[in-house]
Protein 1
Amino acid sequence: MTLHPIVKDVTDNIIKRSAKTRAAYLQSMKEMAESNDQDRTKVSCSNLAHAGAAAGQDQDDVTGLAMSNKANIAIVSAYNDMLSAHQPFENYPQMIRAAARANGATAQMAGGVPAMCDGVTQGRPGMELSLASRDVIAMSTAVALSHGVYDGALCLGVCDKIIPGLVMGALAFGHLPVIFVPAGPMPSGLPNDEKAAIRKAFAKGEVGRDALLKAEMAAYHSAGTCTFYGTANSNQMLMEIMGLHLPGGTFVNPHEDLRHALTISATEQIIAISRKSNDVRPMAEVIDERSFVNAIIGLHATGGSTNHALHLPAMAAAAGISLTWDDFDALSEVTPLLARLYPNGSADVNHFNAAGGMGFVIHELLSAGILHGDAKTIWGKSMADYVVEPQLTDKGLSWREGAKSSIDEAILRPVSNPHAANGGLKMLSGSLGRAVMKISAVAPERHKITAPVAIFENEADVKAAFEAEALNRDVIVVVRGQGPAATGMPELHSLTPVLTILQDKGYQVALMTDGRMSGASGKVPSAIHVTPESALGGPISRLRDGDMVTIDAISGEMTTDAPLDTREPITDYPAMRATGFGRGLFASYRQNVCSAEEGAGLKLL
């Protein structure tokens, strides 16, 4: 199938825009690959002894680390047992070391990276560390890989900031082949619609905290990723459609035999493409402009997380590639919405996988010419080989042809009959700056809203106004002082139930903020990631209560008739001076952070 002309044009524009930075990145990776510092056989005997001192039988000078023809694989893990999604990683290093040994190689736990849970920190001070943790993870990954004794790496991670941070850190060592290893989603629990209904009932005061806690624990009930389609599961989709996962294994549950077999196979595959192999696939060459175009298309086609309007530009920058929100916007217009998962529907990722999963999505997008089938991957020859699914038989793990039709079109549909003609994200611009809006779950009649604004500086004040019934009207709630330079860009997900209640009462309601919403943001129109942010004097800082604002996802505009040029910006917010709960440690991040459109990360040299 011929590549869609818009997809080609966007890709060509990215290549042209990134020519200098991409060339500089690839040259840096070439120099690293050729450096004695990245060849363990050329380091001193003392260095090598230190590297293998605790390796037991893997230190052996005949079969182990000292042998120049043996691949040594780094394991970088985001394991902790507070995140349900990451708890299964506890035993992965032991499993991987054994699999490597069985295949004539060695593997070492090179380092761990922090992994926090936005689900725990929502509405609390820890949320202000969340986005910044992505850069900490990237740096931690680089530290783990800095010893120069590895021929490839396996990155173990799942959730929100963890996968983007691991990608950014691994790309800093892009001369190494790298495979990402998932843990899979927890089995389905309390249906998402029931969970959402109880949350709204609690916000209305109709049920108590005991009922809310019971429902939440029934929804989040075991090891594995939360099953709704938020940032964590969007991450996993991205790793597969970018060719960094083995195909078809993204949404296999943690404790299934197939999950174990896929982890063993990932170990075998990283050895097969390592620097000691005849099929070396450095991450710097696997991931290119086509990979990121495919990622954006996958995000649109599945109605994925708004957080990736931040993460994908930051990840791309780590590879010397420049992405803009205009790229997202152009690709959204030609990418049909194929999946409806909660919060855009009632199904979860287990239902998605059963209905046809990633194999079906990739097949449909390739067949329509909307995906780069020639993009490089860590398995097979290219993305064109990812239209398969794994199976476990008496003969072991193998791959069969993936689904060519959906088992349930309420969940997954073909390109010929999509849920919507275009993707789930819309970029807004106008007199109030630029912003991102997720429209895949927003009713069409709410895609354009004009209403007076009510301005707040934190979530607590919004909730207080709601409880005082001061928001029982058509209103655009503006929460500012939440940008990356102000407070680290926390998610404001705890506002979802109260704004949904107002909308259900029949009011025209929207949210505008220079902060983030959850990757599971849903039915209330929300202009988020507003840039320039208020703390830096962006137009949002000049809004006043009662100003009329229009948020229009149809035309892609975000405007006001208020006389912004005649007003002084409000750039100082009390939250910017908070230092407790670790926030003071991240002052340098807030002082050196890029804009939201650039990825809201530390500026790269």
Note: The first helix runs from residue 5 to 17.
Protein 2
Amino acid sequence: MNKITMALAGNPNAGKTTLFNALTGARQHVGNYPGVTVERKEGEYQRGDFNAVVVDLPGTYSLTTYSEEEVVARDFLANEKPAVVINIVDAANLERNLYLTCQLLELKIPLVVALNMMDVASDRGMEIDAEKLSAFLGVPVLPIVARSGQGLDELMAAAQEMVEGRLSPPDPAKVRISYGDDIDQTLLTMTRLIRDQDLLKGKYPSRWIAVKIIENDEALIKEVNEDSLDLAAQLLHEAEIVAAHLMKTFDTYPEAVIADHRYGFIKGILNRGIITHRYDENRLYTSDRIDKVLTNRFAGPLIMLAVLFSIYQITFSFSALPVSGVEAVFGWVAGLVEANLGDGPLKSMLVSGVIGGVGGVLGFVPLIMLMFFCIAILEDSGYLARVAFMMDRIFRMFGLHGSSVMAFIVSGGIAGGCAVPGVMATRTLRSPKERMATLLTVPFMNCGAKVPILALLIGAFFAQHQAFYMFGFTILSWIVALVAAKLLRLTVLRGEPTPFVMELPPYRFPTFNGLMIHTWERTWQYIKKAGTVILAISILLWAMMTYPGLSPEKEAVFVQERARIITLYEADSEAGNKLLQEVDNRQGGAALRNSIAGRIGVAMEKVTWLSGFEWRTNIALLGGFAAKEVIISTLGTAYSMGETDPEDAGSLGDRLARDSAWSPLVAMSALLFMAFYAPCFVTVVCIAREAGSWNWALFSIVYSTAIAFILSTGVYQVGRMLGF
């Protein structure tokens, strides 16, 4: 049969991504939904002649468009109309998870319910009658354990039968939830008006549109207004009448009444013998017992720090050999190009711009991959949510909301994230001032682009304590971000913090397949960026570091010096060759200094000498405004141009360690500046879009660069006074 579209929908932490990975394996790709930054994951599934494109919808608790994820999920269901939707439900938390199920049923879409984590429910002494639940909901309900693959064949067989019409779509009579006499009467009136005028051309069921208008769903109301202003006015008038009546009689809003009746409907089903408890419902489960230790007020933070330090220790211990191997490969490729291409711009661009630049970034792929693997273990096991829970206590002291924690973690709070989704994650914050303080400080985290920079300089100058320094810089990133947030909350963003509630998913053993997929997804994004954005910027910066070159007069001076050496050292070629190489190096350095980028870097020295930075480092810092990874590629280019002595070859770290402009003190100053100065360009654009003003985006550049400069200058100047 032809390939159809199948969607996976469910609450966060219900095992939706685990099921997606189990169904699609390596046959998946990640992109973004048009016009938004929400991730779109698609994969291919094949079972006999049943071929499907599986779309993993963002995790949502409902279809009310409060967040971008809910908007994306609802728009996909309404506009792309998948042939079947598999609703993944956490069997151990049926009441909460079935709330979304009710909304999906009201949409009258072809639905199959996957009752996931049956093993967890069984461990908690719960026996669930899936057949009886199916009878009450009017759709197939299949028990599964997505992590182990149990029940997946039966689930997909039911999905295929639904697609082929051998199973009936949801029975509207079984999911016709009563919302009380007042709302039900209004719904009848509104539904008749909607049906008579074919509002939205059948995009949604008539009754569902009416419910959403009464719930004051802004996104849907906007759609209705665009379709028919007159009818929209009538419907809104009806909704206002019932809202006023409910406020007068019950002192509550219609959306609260509707939510109460949905949960009442769910409770009514569950009380029909759907769940049987073998023992005390209030006993402590395994996750609860583990949490008594891992989230303990005193032991929890210490364990969290130990886990973080262990990640860095494992990463550096096991990645050293593969990183050296990758660097050796790029060194070999550079040698081939050197040997087989004649001198000229093409050779210079390939060796210095492409291999020296992009190769320096790709050299850290093994380290990045190992770190992402460790982070995936923390995520998939459920421990990362505990980190957020524990950090909430600290965040409140600095005037931030507990939900800010996840934005910081996504941005690289444990290392390896990205500031862009971190900025986007601030949309969940309801307080405008807390949201603004969060999105202005998440770029301080050690994102995946900063990790190679830290690894490079720490490996070159503090190799004996790499894990300790990486751990220290991660802790420092949190401290700087929180102090900066406190300053903002005490000055331009004054206000009281709001309460925080979050869900702690049960602990689970991560699957090897899931860990591999998550690790590769993130690593591939890093590699893809190196092969596209960073490659383009590296070539552009190479051009800026190559042209206009030396004037004919200065070129002539070096030509004459070479001729003199050749004349003097005809009999002793080894000594002469060494002097010729020194001349070539000096000529390359002079040409770089006279280039466009070199002139800018030299001009910046009037200020950056305070932090110990010379002009070549300044060029790299300029490139870092475009993307932080470019710092490494630019350093690789700047410190390779003009280098002809084979003894000077080696990794970028080796070249920096040998260069007279660098020292451990300069490296520490550079680490501080590079870790905290202006966000990359893409992040700045996101800040402008989220804040609704370029003023805040420009402010983020200025204040973060100022903080970075103060820190680096302070360390460098104090270090010089102390004789370091």
Note: The two ends are 73 Å apart (CA to CA).
